[in-house]
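Document type: protein sequence-to-structure record

Subject area: structural biology

Format: plain text, a pair of labelled lines:
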Amino acid sequence: MRRFFGRLGPGLITGAADDDPSGISTYSVAGALFGYGALWTALFSFPLMASVQLMCARVGMVTGRGLAGVVRRRYPRPVLWGTCILLVIANVINIGADLGGMAEATEMVTGIDSRLWTPVYAGLIVSFLFFSSYDQMARIFKWMTLILFSYLAAALLANPHWPTVLRATFLPHVQWSADYLATFVGILGTTISPYLFFWQAAQEVEEERRMGRRTVGSRKGATDAELRR
């Protein structure tokens, strides 16, 4: 059991990070607009997210490089620059939405203006990046994934009508309206976020660096057992 939990790392953290403040905001909007009507998208999007994470993890493990490094060596330079520019645009918007969501939630709890909390959270995160190590951040983030159990508790305490919940989850209902389609695109966008691709591959490389594999040559390749794990 200890070995199992000790091995949990990149996949667990990356998957949990997908429940970011911008994601919670998007799901809240979906619930406010359409009730349980968008629940079926969870079953639709989970296999897509899992397969993307798996592919990116294997790219990082087999090549010993992050995703941008692989693109740089396998594709023409315009493809690399186009990919990175799109990633930067998506990440800037995503980070802004995350910081805003965190600040708004804190304002609801404390009553202090969210505009004061936004730079506080930004400064705290940047300080972590500069003054802590990968090992420290990985350990902290791994324990923080336990917060996800609060979602389960919230769902139970909300006392929903479970037959309706199950019907909406397993019987897809699509409304051909601009609001519904925009919400559907938003759900897919926040579930399969661009930073997940790069983050998952980079975390696999960092894990191998932590094991002492400092060069690309020593990281290159993966055994069947490593890929299964």
